[in-house]
Here is the input.
Amino acid sequence: MKRNSLTIIIGAVLVLIFALLLFVFQVRQSETAVVATFGKPTGTPYTSAGAYFKWPWPVQKVYKYDQRVQNFEDKYSQALTADSTMLMTSIYVGWKISDARQFLQVFPGDPSVSLPTAQGKLEDMLRTAKSAIIGKHPLSDFVNANPQDLKFDAIENEIEQVVQDELRTLNYGIEIKFLGFKKIGLPESVTQTVFDRMKSERQVLISLAENTGKSEAQKIQSAADAEAAKTIANAQATATRIRAEGEAEAAKTLPIFERNPDLAVFLLRIDAIKQSLNQRSTLFFDERIPPFDLFRNLPTNAPGH
Amino acid sequence: MQRFNDLTNVERNVQKNGLVNLVAAALIFVAALVVTTYSHSLAGQAGSVFLGLGMLVAFTGWFQMRLEENERLEKLEIEEMARTKGESTLFAAKESEAFPARRSREQFEKYFVPGFAVLLFLLEAGGAWLLWRWVARMAAGVPTDRAMASLSIFAIFALLLFMVGRFSVTIARLEGQRLLRPGASFLLAGAYVCVFIALGIAGVEAKFPRADFWVARGLCVLLGLMAAEILVTLLLEIYRPRVRGRVARPLYDSRVVGLFAQPESLFTTAAQTLDYQFGFKVSETWFFQLLKKNLPVLVLAQLAVLILSTCVVFVDAGEQAILERFGKHVATLDAGAHFKLPWPVEKTFRYRTEQIQTFVVGYVPDEQSQRATTILWSVAHAKEDNFLVGNRAPVTIQNENAGTNGTLKAPPVGLISVSIPVQFQITNVADWAYNNADTTNLLEALATREVVHFLAGVDLLEVMSSNRLEAAESLRAGIQASANEHQLGAKIVFVGLQDIHPPTTVAGDYEKVIGAEQTKLATILAARAYAISNVTLAGAQAFTTTNLADATRLQLEVSRFAQAALFTNQIPAFEAAPSVYKQRVYFQMFAAATRNARKYVMLVTNTQDVMWFDLEDKIRTDLLNATVPNE
Here is the structure.
């Protein structure tokens, strides 16, 4: 008996729990819910948090959606700028369901399926708008070393405006809250050319630095050479002057030699011979040259002796 | 005749139970498949396989019951006929011809049952193996909006299976219906399986997304155990002694399923084991009896504790929790213990608010880069992104088409790699939780956008060299403003610009520029050294030259004056003996000047011979004798 009553209690608790689960649904503060009766959305969406009554499935079914701003990032895709540059961009988008009932009608089915579907549609619109707006602007509007020439914000606003207008026209029950560029780049092939150009710039700087160095060095060396040459030339001039002064001073002795020119010339000749024989010499004499003239009368190997 | 009718009624009732089991198993199997498809529950998939096996077992049991009933009817009819007609020629006939129903039952037990057991083994083993692998590949995917409906339906399945299974198990036990037991056990076990599936889905709903996965894994293990058991049973069946008259346990009657369906039977088995082990009736002690009697109460108490445990929440240090009552934010809980109404009336969601959280813009760190002690521009230290950056050409470059492909023109931009850690704190947990979905991802997107925007408007060299601190502060302020604008409820604590460099591909060339600058300085310094040396030596040479000139001048003056003085003194001597004096002077000079000269004196006058003199210098013999070594 005791066992049976326990079983009944357990069963009653289970039934109560199942009944609650079947007849009551909760809406979180971050959610909005639409109740569909036999598949048709009925009533106004539940946007306030709380517990609400519903008829069990399959009479009524509750579709709960996240009413917070949801964000996603579109594909990193290629587009042509106004000055024919390939640009790769990726945009993040914040969007939310503004009309859950309309959303359910446009994107029927479970939110786990309808939300990605809606996001896919939004991404298609976004990519179209993005390509169109990028095509109106040159690359310098996206990247510019002068920040005042950038039109980043304006481009983002233009894309947002295009997508917003289209969503309003199509009445999907969703709205864009914000968007922005998350990534800007260049296609791989163009990136390679940029790398090559950056390398070339570096090569120019390398060459500039090396040759500037050589030029500076050459200037310094030549200035030094000039200064050295000048110093030496000045010294040589001074030396010449000094020697000339010596010569002038020495010339004062010449009148003394004039007292006996014959002897003076003889002595100069003697001195000249002495100076010329100073080096290693080979001399040929015959018997007429003094002092070898002493050999003249000596016996020779003449025939007949 | 009355006994015959009673027996027939009992057998028919049991058969009816078997049929009810089969129908229930089939219906719930199909329904479970549908709900599983709807809910994408991994545990539901595994549970459906289990229920499908149960359906097959129930069918086989029911079919075998029918065969046995036919045999029994056949036997009773023959006995009745034998009583009324006495000896009959029927018994003279061959046994197989006389008892076709028995023959059918025997053939069934001999061939079909082992075959079915093998099939069951293959299905269980294959199911366990394939499900295990499939579950590992699949992401947990019970959509939250379908969770409650699926949970409810599986709970209803559990209730239905429990009622049918419990009734059949009791009937099978009381009336000793061995063929009813396998299907009944499967149904009862199926009820518990459905409860576990529902719990798994409830776990997903309660923000434990892996709960469904782990329940699926558990069911895979159960299928594996069942396969192992049936394999062992098949092997043992080969060696089982066949005793005539002894009724064999059906091969498809799983003890594992029975134990799973009726865990209380474990007590009996455990009690027997303990009694044997300890040598006295442990199972009759007050503790064991109390445990056995109050097991349902204990289980219920455990469930109550489980529910009560959801009434207390402990928020860790550095965390805050949002308390929701029926989904409505009613309070924000700080660190410490808090009481709340039980789940699902009140729920809490925790967030790390005090803790400094970090994400990095520009690169994805890898394990190897984290371990590296040196970071070089020219060596990739992570998976780096290249950002577009403004480019003022440092010098005029004539050839702008520097690309390898002649058709592509390099745009006037540069590329740069950055790694910018962004540290933040959650300051308003309600804003963080309720304004945006996936707020961390959004903050990262906003921060990346600020970085992209900032880099797109600066010159590459400027940003790499100067104003880094100012740039970091500017970035921090920009990200904070963006976060405030989107009401993230976060404070940007720090933005670092410690690693900005050219991409790895061109980093080497940037280093070469620095090398070239050093070479330039070295060349200039060498020239300066040369200049110093040259000018200094020139000064010395000038000094030498002027000094030599001074010396020459002095020498000239002195020698000339000396010569003049000598000449003045020579005049009287010359005048005294002019010719002798001259001869003397001549011979003195001759002797002195030709002392070292090679002299040839030609004294022969009477010969016509021609004499040749080779006056060339002789080469030294040792040089002539020198030999040139061969290569």
Notes: Residues 147 and 201 of chain B are 6 Å apart (CA to CA).
